[in-house]
């Protein structure tokens, strides 16, 4: 009693060799049951050890093994098999007019094509970048963006 969520743990040992985001398989699999969705959050003890779990939403119709996205600013870091690094906080979605959709079994992005079209590393400068976005109907949009969000990577 009093527990906000269900712990999830790693199913294999993982070593974070750099500060790139990595997906780690867990012992949890969707669907969660009873029409529940869940917030996937990190354990406080995990971040105290220098491993940060990026939060996510697990939809009620998610069909495959749940992965946790993690990163560390101070590699290398080893995460042992069976380590409880995250928790699922269940909730009942109250989105009006939500539609049922057929999900694939590919995990991330299984409901459609990826939406990330440009990713670039930036260093200490604050450069501008000219970007041309092209849609399926071949219409385009040109824009100039500042490539700095006080993060190491900017994604459009």
From TrEMBL:
Taxonomic lineage of the native organism: Eukaryota, Metazoa, Chordata, Craniata, Vertebrata
Transmembrane segments: none
Molecular-function GO terms, alphabetical: aspartic-type endopeptidase activity
InterPro entries (UniProt xref): dUTPase-like, dUTPase-like_sf, dUTPase_trimeric, HERV-K_Pro_peptidase_A2, Peptidase_A2_cat
The protein's name: POK9 protein
Peptidase A2 domain segment(s): 143-156
Domain of life: Eukaryota
Keyword terms of this UniProt record: Aspartyl protease, Hydrolase, Protease
Native organism: Eulacestoma nigropectus
């Amino acid at each position: 009693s009093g527990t906000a969520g269900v712990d999830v743990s790693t199913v294999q040992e993982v070593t974070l060799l750099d500060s790139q985001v990595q997906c780690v398989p867990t012992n949890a699999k969707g669907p969660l049951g009873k029409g529940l969705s869940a917030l996937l959050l990190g354990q406080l003890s995990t971040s105290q050890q220098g491993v940060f779990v990026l939060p996510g939403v697990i939809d009620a119709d998610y069909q495959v093994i749940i992965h946790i996205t993690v990163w560390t600013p101070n590699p290398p870091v080893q995460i042992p098999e069976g380590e409880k690094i995250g928790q699922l906080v269940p909730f009942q979605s109250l989105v009006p007019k939500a539609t049922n959709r057929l999900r694939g079994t590919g995990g991330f992005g299984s409901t459609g094509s990826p939406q990330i079209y440009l990713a670039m590393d930036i260093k200490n400068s604050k450069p501008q970048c000219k970007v041309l976005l092209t849609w399926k109907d071949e219409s385009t949009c040109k824009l100039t963006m500042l490539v700095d969000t006080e993060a190491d990577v900017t994604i459009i």
